[in-house]
């Protein structure tokens, strides 16, 4: 297998420039559009995919799914780049750099910025920052469902739709009260756009710090019940069932689901034909609440008791592990994997949530919620693949085709390696590992529980719309 470094028409490769040529011979190509994977040669010239050649026989002998992999660029349905308002934690420029490092070529930013993205002027600020960054990573945005995310009156949904948002959300909180959610769902449906819902019944989570269970009880943390998520999902699905009768275009996307019960509700809703999709995060797939106790085992190896012999290898109460929804017990992490396998979960979304040291390096219960995760997402997902819990093709599908289908046209087009089209791809080496460190992370947010951890799948090259988004040293 040989990867010839891309040439960009300059002696030093520069992010943002058109890739003059990239030749990859004998790599493992994963094409989720065709539902196919195998040995292939890929040639990019002048920013476009010039040739994709599937290999057979002796030509394919050296290729392996455990080596260099070529896949379409990843699509993140749920990320926070903090600009405008909290640029100390992240900017559009640093977020795009981090996205390229993680293999993502399209990101959908949530609207809980300061000010919130509830009118087109704020969207203009985001777009200006994206253009100024010089990164080719495609930056899309969700608009607020309600004005100021306050849940009292709808935001200017029509104006936001005309300005080009991908849908509406009050992320950080569910759209409440129920009447506001019903109105937002119907209005968004008439515009042909989805509502992305953060499923959390706030009356059940006030003051909560960690998943309600053994770990929270032993550590003295206030419990965050799974029922809070499940009650919110049940409410939303009941409203969808009513609204869709009058507004056939209504669509609900449930983001960062984390409990077995919530995923089972979605599974049943899909069987009944309701227009609902959902995503799960890499950290809810790979980590459990046992990490808060100091365990560092992967979810697929967990027993549920972090205090078994030798399991605790780190200090408890690491504030980088405080996240919303919280890390759950192993049975819930297993349910997230099951949902990916059977199609209940349509996508993997990072919920990349960078924070400053000031907001994170505090007492666990006072720490801001969120993990800086767009650069470590691939490594966590490949961990599940390496453990035999998730096929590589399905993993790539959930990072590419799945989120594109949730977005729908015109936002979800262009996934795949199509001859003659602009190259939008990631090349990563499954046989190589990289160490997560504050220096290695390009995000300003260093709030990751994976610092000093080795992860599989070092990203070598990311190309977005034919232009260089990331090139490994």
Q: What is shown here, in short?
A:
The chain is α/β, with parallel strands linked by helices and 473 residues long.
Please describe what this structure looks like.
The protein is built from 13 helices and 19 strands. It has helices at 92-102, 120-133, 157-163, 178-190, 214-219, 226-246, 260-271, 282-286, 330-342, 357-360, 377-386, 392-399, 401-407; strands at residues 2-7, 21-31, 36-45, 48-54, 68-72, 74-79, 104-109, 138-141, 143-144, 168-169, 195-198, 210-211, 223-224, 252-255, 276-280, 347-348, 425-435, 454-464, 467-471. The radius of gyration is 21 Å and the shape is globular.
The third-level CATH topology of the largest domain is TIM Barrel
CATH classification class of the largest domain: Alpha Beta
Q: Shape from CA axes?
A: globular
Overall mean confidence score, pLDDT: 95
Distance between the termini: 19 Å
Please count the helical segments. Answer: 13
Helix content: 25-40%
Question: CATH superfamily assignment of the largest domain?
Answer: Metal-dependent hydrolases
What percentage of the residues does DSSP assign to strands (E)? 15-25%
How many discrete domains? Answer: 2
Examine the secondary-structure arrangement and name the CATH architecture of the largest domain: Alpha-Beta Barrel
Per DSSP E runs of 2 or more residues, the count of β-strands stands at: 19
What would you report as the Rg, rounded to the nearest angstrom? 21 Å
Strand-helix topology:
Elements: E1 2-7, E2 21-31, E3 36-45, E4 48-54, E5 68-72, E6 74-79, H1 92-102, E7 104-109, H2 120-133, E8 138-141, E9 143-144, H3 157-163, E10 168-169, H4 178-190, E11 195-198, E12 210-211, H5 214-219, E13 223-224, H6 226-246, E14 252-255, H7 260-271, E15 276-280, H8 282-286, H9 330-342, E16 347-348, H10 357-360, H11 377-386, H12 392-399, H13 401-407, E17 425-435, E18 454-464, E19 467-471
Parallel strand pairs: 2-5, 6-7, 7-8, 9-10, 11-14, 12-13, 14-15, 15-16
Antiparallel strand pairs: 1-2, 2-3, 3-4, 5-17, 17-18, 18-19
Helix pairs in contact: 1-2, 4-6, 6-7, 7-9
